[in-house]
């Protein structure tokens, strides 16, 4: 199940509640457009509906309208599962309730947010139909240490206060960009980017991690050279002084390491992204588990994006082959793309290897890996795993540990 696409690295705000509680009407109210279908028929929204809107002081924000949490039947249960899956991926949850009912569905949703440290806002909706009971509001505000927002989408005066409340509750980390190489690269430093072009490379453009790192380096006022691995030696020799750093695609780590002198720092795009996404220490602890794999062990490859699979695919072809060659073990490797459900329980795996995560937010990446981390399954990422398999793990990590 996807709630992100392409490079949509914007904060996501999910709208949750029972059927006919005004979730779709709230999307239309916030955006000022008829985006979501509104109907008195229960269960009108069946799949998550997304709409992007600009909020002053934040930038683009994605509203995610979800199916009712009290849906019925076998299909209804699947819709509820989708809604709860969305909850795990959002930066803020808007929890709607009305008719002075705050029961099992609402309590469970709040508790789920609190366990996952997901900020939430309680909204009493449809206040024009059934006014809120003051005692209930006081009880909720005491129990949850938060104020309830009272809303009627029939009244325009609530829109701006609600948007301002949402803006205050959104974590800064969901929309404020921190440079990927902050503290590592300074203005004027020379950085060489090595970008191989093979059958898995997109036609006519660079892959997203390379674009993100390049933009970051330009923002830091670094001097950047970009080349393929076949031109790397010439690129290095054409400059009078050695570069401050070489960043390469992970799949040519061994070749690049053989060209770049040992005194020049070397790392990969995937490792740079791993450092920026917030699970770096978990990856550091989990990577050595590669050496502890045994015959029959399962390894899970998690790809954040969905792409065409080729014979040179890194996650489904090259990395599994390298793992088997390095360990000498008969390993079972599964790959799951996007935010799709796993084939089997995460506890069946002895290692989880996540891609760089260039198309997902830190919250989404953390939510994806948290079940494995909580279950004690080691996690790492493509770049760190390939550095380990290439025998240059310590070198690839050194510039981030100084």
Task: Describe the 3D structure.
The protein is an alpha/beta fold. The chain is elongated, with a radius of gyration of 24 Å. 41% of the residues are buried. It folds into three domains: 12-174, 3-Layer(aba) Sandwich (Rossmann fold), CATH 3.40.50.300; 190-272, Rossmann fold (3-Layer(aba) Sandwich); 280-393, Rossmann fold. It starts with 11 loop residues before the first strand and ends with a helix. β9, α8 and β10 form a beta-alpha-beta unit. It has helices at 23-31, 73-87, 104-115, 134-144, 159-169, 208-219, 232-237, 253-259, 269-277, 280-286, 314-327, 362-374, 382-389, 393-401, and strands at 12-16, 49-55, 59-65, 92-97, 120-124, 149-150, 190-194, 223-227, 245-248, 266-268, 298-303, 332-337, 351-354, 379-381.
Quick structural overview:
This protein is of the alpha/beta class and 402 residues long.
* SS element count, helices: 14
Q: Enter the CATH topology name of the largest domain.
A: Rossmann fold
Helix share bin:
25-40%
- Main CATH class of the largest domain: Alpha Beta
The structural class is alpha/beta
Order of strands across the main sheet:
2-3-1-4-5-6
Strand content: 15-25%
What is the number of strand segments? 14
The residue-averaged pLDDT reads 89
Runs in which pLDDT lies below 50 for 5 or more consecutive residues are 1-8, 41-45
Order of helices and strands: EHEEHEHEHEHEHEHEHEHHEHEEHEHH
Do you know the CATH architecture of the largest domain?
A: 3-Layer(aba) Sandwich
Q: How would you sum up the global shape?
A: elongated
Distance between the termini: 39 Å
Number of domains: 3
From the alpha-carbon coordinates, what is the Rg to the nearest angstrom? 24 Å
State the major sheet. 6 strands, mixed
CATH homologous superfamily name of the largest domain? Answer: P-loop containing nucleotide triphosphate hydrolases
């Amino acid at each position: 199940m996807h709630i992100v696409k392409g490079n949509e690295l914007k904060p996501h705000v999910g709208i949750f509640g029972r059927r006919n509680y005004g979730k779709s009407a709230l999307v239309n109210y916030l955006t000022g457009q008829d985006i979501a279908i509104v109907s008195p028929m229960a269960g009108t929204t069946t799949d998550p509906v997304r709409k992007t809107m600009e909020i002053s002081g934040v930038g683009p924000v994605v509203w995610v309208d979800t199916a009712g949490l009290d849906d019925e039947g076998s299909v209804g249960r699947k819709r509820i599962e989708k809604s709860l899956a969305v909850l795990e991926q959002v930066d803020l949850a808007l929890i709607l309730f009305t008719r002075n009912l705050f029961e099992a569905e609402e309590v469970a949703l709040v508790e789920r947010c609190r366990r996952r440290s997901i900020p939430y806002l309680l909204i009493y909706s449809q206040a024009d139909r059934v006014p809120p009971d003051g005692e209930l509001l006081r009880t909720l505000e005491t129990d949850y240490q938060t104020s309830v927002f009272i809303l009627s989408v029939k009244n325009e005066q609530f829109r701006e206060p609600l948007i301002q409340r949402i803006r205050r509750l959104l974590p800064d980390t969901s929309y404020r960009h921190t440079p990927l190489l902050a503290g590592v690269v300074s203005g004027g430093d020379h950085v060489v980017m090595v970008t191989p072009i093979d059958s898995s490379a997109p036609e006519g453009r660079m892959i997203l991690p390379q674009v993100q790192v390049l933009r970051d380096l330009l923002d830091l006022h670094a001097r950047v050279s970009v080349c393929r691995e076949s031109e790397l030696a010439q690129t290095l020799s054409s400059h009078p002084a050695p570069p401050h750093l070489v960043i390469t695609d992970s799949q040519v780590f061994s070749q690049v390491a053989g060209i770049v002198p040992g005194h020049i720092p070397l790392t990969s795009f995937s490792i740079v992204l791993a450092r920026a996404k917030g699970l770096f220490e978990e990856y550091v602890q989990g990577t050595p588990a590669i050496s502890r794999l045994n015959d029959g062990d399962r390894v899970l490859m998690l790809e954040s994006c969905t792409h065409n699979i080729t014979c040179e695919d890194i996650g489904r072809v090259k990395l599994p082959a390298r793992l088997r060659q390095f360990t000498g073990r008969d390993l079972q490797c599964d790959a799951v793309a996007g935010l799709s459900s796993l084939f089997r329980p995460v506890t069946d795996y002895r290692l989880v290897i996540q891609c760089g995560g260039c198309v997902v937010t830190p919250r989404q990446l953390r939510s994806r890996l948290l079940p494995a981390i909580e279950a004690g399954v080691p996690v790492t990422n493509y770049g760190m795993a390939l550095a380990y398999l290439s025998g240059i793990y310590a070198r690839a990590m050194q510039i981030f540990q100084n």
